[in-house]
Every structure is written in structure tokens, then in C-alpha cells.
Amino acid sequence: MPISSVNAPVRASARLGEVRYEIRGELARRALELEAQGRDIVKLNIGNPGLFGFVVPAHVRAAIAANLGRSEAYCHQRGLLSAREAIAAQQQAHGVAHAHPERIFIGNGVSELIDLALRVLLNDGDEVLLPSPDYPLWSAATTLNSGRPVYYPCPAQRAHLPDADEIEALITSRTRALVVINPNNPTGAVYPRALLQALVRIAERHRLVLLSDEIYDEILYDNAEFVPLAALAGDVPCLSFDGLSKVQRACGYRVGWLALTGAPTLLGELEHGLDLLASLRLCANVPGQWAIAPSIEGEDTISPLTAPGGRLHEARRVVIEHCAQSDFLQVVAPQGALYAFPGVRADALPGFDDEVFALDLLETENVLIVPGSGFNLGARNHFRVTLLPPPAQLRDVFARIERTLARAAAAQTSARHVA
Questions:
Q1: CA nearest neighbour of 391 among 326, 311, 337
Q2: Which of 173, 170, 191 is nearest to 181 (CA)?
Q3: In whole angstroms, how far apart are CA 326 and each of 20, 320, 345, 385, 402?
Q4: What's the total number of domains in the chain?
Q5: Exposed, middle or buried, 242 (CB in 10 Å: 0-12/13-18/19+)?
Q6: Which of 24, 78, 238, 270 has its CA 20 to 30 A from that of 352?
Q7: CATH classification at residue 344
Q8: Is the pLDDT of residue 40 over 60?
């Protein structure tokens, strides 16, 4: 065997070259290097409540502790029946006609279930309609399962909401599914009922499967209303995704679920495929599943955080007020979720590049954010921050952001004078 072939590196799948996940990408790796040098980095790149002092509600944590002795064997591939019954009951209470415990699949977080769902649905070259900006796991999972992401725009000029006619114009004979992220990550948009109804009609006309990411369903501000898509979808096949990571602040528990709804006569192959893939991974982690029923049936602990005076509401207020006072920034006030998606005004800073800015902010001000282009946004004038830090810390962060933008503007002015 030639020496050159022995020493050749092992090649990874070429498909990985088409996948980006900037939330934990090059900037995050650079932040780790700076931390190793002794720098104190403020990390606003991930919606991870436990890192900012939030805790899982006591009754949720207690349910896991009380059932550890019952968690040492595999459970059913779809999940604990008691947990699935609680999820189905919640859906039925929200008006989801076809909710049933047998069509609910519990997974190791929503991330795993997104991958399983797209693996069931897609053949090579099938298209999936995704919002732009999107949560990039959706794009990555589509690509890794041999599909093609097709993006529908959700610009700030429309409060980050899509246009139903624009979505319908993108549909081809290869379009298989329509993804809705509501409340939205990264923008915080909450989709109104009329818009969701229009999306259901599109899916019905074109025989698309609806995929609705609803992990932030109870994180709402200023009387925003969340409407479960499955409650409007009726007989249209709809896969709804939810879990404990955000509302219960339990990211590390890795507990999510997928609910398959629609006319039962249309769901047989989907249900069988999901059951097969769920069986191949044996089951989801069992201890965390005991937390599902008490999370759904127990005390509401998220509303006090999102109501006026609550920590998340006040953090959001800091971002909105700072952007209103900024010489460079503007933002659509997030109506839900844990993020804001400020934009830099073109008239204030022409030629702004989100990746250059994010690196400069990290290197000079010790703040880690995610460039907007990391969410499959064509324009390069946005960035995402999480609302999880204490309000006082966010005030300091946005002072650093303003300084960085002011330096960039001064450099532009100086360059023009030299030219």
C-alpha cells in the first residue's frame, strides 16, 4: 500500500460542507480561546437558561428524583405512556382534534425529533420551505437528510412575519413540507391566527406536511397570543414539536416531543416510519420523561418571568429601549421566545458586515453574539442576542455594542477623508 494513502486523512461526508451552525461555530471556538487566556466573555449566543441563574421548577425536578428507581430499563420507543397521555390531554385542551397518545413520540430534545421527522419525510432532492431567518438546525437537518432548503423571507419591515403568497410562489413539484417556527427563533415574532390559517390552506392545496416548532409556546410578552398550528390544521398532516428546554428552563434534561396530528387515514406511513426510527434508537432518556406530566399539569412558573416586572420582560425592555436610543440600531420588539434580533441601519453604517462586527465585538469588548447571516439570512445587517442575562448586564452589553459600532463608523469616516 502506498505510504501516501496510509497517511491520508479520513474524509468526512461532503454533505457536512453544506451545513452551518454558527451558534456554536467559529466565534464560539474563538471565545473559548479567549477564556483560556483569562478573558471574561459574556456569552449571548445560546438560549441556555441554566447558565444565567434560571432553575428548573422544584416540582419538575422532584418528579425525576422520585422516579429514578423506575428509570433503569428501556421504556416504549414512543415514550412513557403517562407522559404521552399528559401531552395529548394538553393538546386536546388547546383544540387539537386529532391529538392521541399513540401518535406522540418523545425524544432526546426537539433536535433529535426534527432529524427523525425529516428522515421519515424526505427523499433525495425533496424541498422543505423554511423561514429566513431560521433556526439553523432545521436547514442542517434538511440538508443532512438529502433535502433542499428553500427559504421564504420574514423581513424586519414586516415585523419578521412571512407573506403567504410569497410562500406559495416557492412551491414546486418537489416541495414536501412547510416549516413554521412560532414563537420565532431568532426574531421573537409570534404569528397571528389569520396568517397561520393561510399557511394551513397552502399546505392543504399542495398536500404539504406542516412542521411546527413550538418550543417557546408559553414565552410571550405584552399579551401576545400563541395559537397551536395543529388546532387550525384539522385533517392536514401536522407535526408539532415542543419540550421542556425553554419554558421549564430544563435544557440539560434533553426532553422533547413530537405530536403527529391530522386525518388518521393520511398518517399511517408517517406514523410507521417514525415508530421504526424511534425503535432504532431504542428509547429516549427515561428519567427526564417523568418531568413531562408535572410540567404540563403543574404550576405556571414562566408567566411571572415574562410579565411586566419579570426578569425576561425587563431584559427585553432594556434591549428595546437601547435600540430606540442608539445611533445605529433598530429592532422589532420580540413578542415571544428568548431572543432579540437587532438590525444596523444602513444610513448610519453603510456596508455593515455582521460577521466582521461580531468578531470585533468579541475581540475588543468580550461579548459573544451570533451574526444574523448565521440564521440563513441573505442580508448581513442583523445579529441575535439572548434575553437571558440580568437586565443590568444587558445594559452594559449594549453599551459595549454601541462603542463597537461607533468605532466602525469613525473608521469609515476617516477612510473617506483619506480617500
A1: 311
A2: 191
A3: 31, 10, 10, 16, 7
A4: 2
A5: buried
A6: 24
A7: 3.90.1150.10
A8: yes
Smallest CA-to-CA distance from 305 within 184, 397, 221 is with 221
pTM over 0.90: yes
CATH of the domain at 124: 3.40.640.10
Could you identify the residue written with the cell 413554521?
180
Average pLDDT of every residue of the chain: 94
Answer left, alpha or beta for residue 87, where phi above 0 means left and psi between -120 and 50 means alpha: alpha
For the cut 70, the answer to whether the pLDDT of residue 2 exceeds it is no
Residue 3 in this model has a pLDDT that exceeds 80: no
Map residue 370 onto helix, strand or coil.
Answer: strand
AA letter at 260: L
What is the arithmetic mean of pLDDT over 113-140?
96
pLDDT of 306: 98
Query: Is 182 found in the same domain as 69?
Result: yes
Peptide bond into 101 cis (omega under 30): no
Question: Is the pLDDT reported for residue 281 higher than 80?
Answer: yes
DSSP string, 171-224: --TTEEEEEEESS-TTT-----HHHHHHHHHHHHHHTPEEEEE-TTTT-B-TT-
